[in-house]
């Protein structure tokens, strides 16, 4: 079984439409794929329709990656991504929070673009935001910088100009991690902390904060196998997950051509996937043959 529980589409900062993403998952021979766009469920219906019209295609897990703020190793706030699986999209408070996060994304990206434009870069906020879709992020600005010839690749844009804490970086008001975990659980979903040891992205979430959430009982799992994790960091996260009975996931964090990682580059064990589905009470996985 090939199970990839973290991918992005054009509904956030991936480059495949949800239907193209399902085609890519099918071509890669995946048995299960989760669509986890940033702060939106916008792509769910298109992905579901694609799965239902693809015999032999993957099972679809409807999910999201939520922008959160946790406690960093130095005690200061740090950005954390929380994967949320199989939650009820109509849960009012959670739907409102997603919408607030997307509005926050727009305001913040506009500020970043305006700062760059004021410094003479050939970028326009209205144009970039119009092209960005429902969940605007730095990769949309990165692509505009590639198109303007400022940098060669999206990755190059993140190396300096757009990096966290860099000259043009603007923070956004993300959801406190504890609030987010409770909200996802309340909506019947399974909250899983994403790439907690992705060191190249900047400062890290304090291990104590992970342990507090694990002891709290509402956290569902930890993303352990991720392209940005070293084997040592993955092992340390796996040990925490095992100690607290959390689901251990593995995933590619596929973003189409915005990143070099192919879909299915990391995968989740079938017993862990089954444990995740058993914890969920929001919406079921979608089977290609209409089976439940
Ligand atoms: P934002 O959500 O607007 O803060 O932008 C962060 C997003 O940028 C993350 O979801 C990553 O997928 C993406 N990202 C971060 N670093 C890189 C990189 N080096 N190359 C491509 N995408 C990146
Ligand atoms: Fe992303
Ligand atoms: Fe992420
Ligand atoms: Zn992601």
Distance between the termini: 18 Å
Structural class: alpha/beta
The low-pLDDT segments are: none
What characterizes the major β-sheet? 8 strands, mixed
Give the H and E element order: EHEHEEHHHHEHEHEHEH
**Which molecules other than protein and nucleic acid are bound?**
adenosine monophosphate, fe (iii) ion, zinc ion
Query: What is the residue-averaged pLDDT?
Result: 97
How would you describe the overall organization of this protein?
This protein is of the alpha/beta class and 292 residues long. It has a domain at 103-159. Helix content is 39%, strand content 16%. The protein is built from ten helices and eight strands. It has helices spanning 18-27, 44-52, 92-118, 125-132, 138-147, 154-159, 177-186, 207-216, 231-244, 270-279; strands at 3-7, 32-35, 59-71, 77-85, 175-176, 190-193, 221-225, 247-250. Strands 1, 2, 3, 4, 5, 6, 7 and 8 form an eight-stranded mixed sheet that branches. The longest helix is centred in the middle third of the chain and has 27 residues, at 92-118. It is globular and about 55 Å long. The protein starts with a strand and ends in a 13-residue tail after the last helix. It binds adenosine monophosphate, fe (iii) ion (FE) (2 copies) and zinc ion.
Question: How is the topology of this model organized?
Answer:
Elements: E1 3-7, H1 18-27, E2 32-35, H2 44-52, E3 59-71, E4 77-85, H3 92-118, H4 125-132, H5 138-147, H6 154-159, E5 175-176, H7 177-186, E6 190-193, H8 207-216, E7 221-225, H9 231-244, E8 247-250, H10 270-279
Parallel strand pairs: 1-2, 2-3, 3-5, 6-7, 7-8
Antiparallel strand pairs: 3-4, 4-6
Bound molecules: adenosine monophosphate, fe (iii) ion (FE) (2 copies) and zinc ion (ZN).
